Amino acid sequence: MLFDKLARWLPLPDRTLQGTVFLDFDGVLHPGFDNTFSCLPVFERLLKKYPQLQVVISSSWREARTLDELRQIFHVRLRQSIVGLTPILPGSNRQAEIRQYCEAHGIRRYVILDDGEELFPRNCPNLYLTNPATGLTAADLRHIIAILRRQSR
Predict the structure, then answer these.
(1) Which of 3, 40, 57, 91 qualifies as a FRET site for 101, CA 20 to 30 Å off?
(2) 12-26, 27-41, 58-72, 133-147, range with the lowest pLDDT
(3) Rounded to an integer, what distance in angstroms lies between the CA atom of residue 83 and that of residue 128?
(4) pTM of the entire structure?
């Protein structure tokens, strides 16, 4: 009885959606390069609702910081979802780095969150571009979830 009452007030996480999110920071977790992480709560909402998602940092921030340092940006309860960094491949685009990570770790279901269209080839699969002026929005989450759901079929 008490559980039924709590369930109505506390939404339970949805464990059905699985996959990997390749995450850029600038233009995604905050507008442009303002380093405020003002859109981080929107992204963390995705991780709370879908705890099976794993996150790999593809942002250029990985070039100057360790994985543990980058995990500190996220809420303590979500840090275990941040599982890796894409390799740095001089002379390659971001898609090549993501492709290499996917091949090394057997990843087939993924979405790429980025704002830098120029970092990817035309018609890059699973790329979701955010508006760099706003960063990630709640409306973007619906599209991201749809991409991952299509891959689950």
Answers:
(1) 40
(2) 12-26
(3) 20
(4) 0.89
Task: Give the distance, in angstroms, between the CA of residue 120 and the centroid of all CA atoms in the same chain.
Answer: 16
Look at residue 6 and tell me whether its pLDDT is greater than 60.
Answer: no
One-letter amino acid at 113 equals L
Q: How far apart are CA 147 and CA 151, in angstroms?
A: 7
Q: Are 121 and 20 in contact (CB under 8 A)?
A: no
Per the CB < 8 A criterion, the answer to whether 113 and 28 are in contact is: yes
Q: Return the bridge partners of 110, or none.
A: 20
Structural Rg of the chain based on CA atoms: 16
Closest Cα to residue 46, out of 140, 129, 133, 134?
Answer: 140
pLDDT of residue 15: 65
* 127-129 β-sheet, strand order: 82-85, 53-57, 19-23, 110-114, 127-129
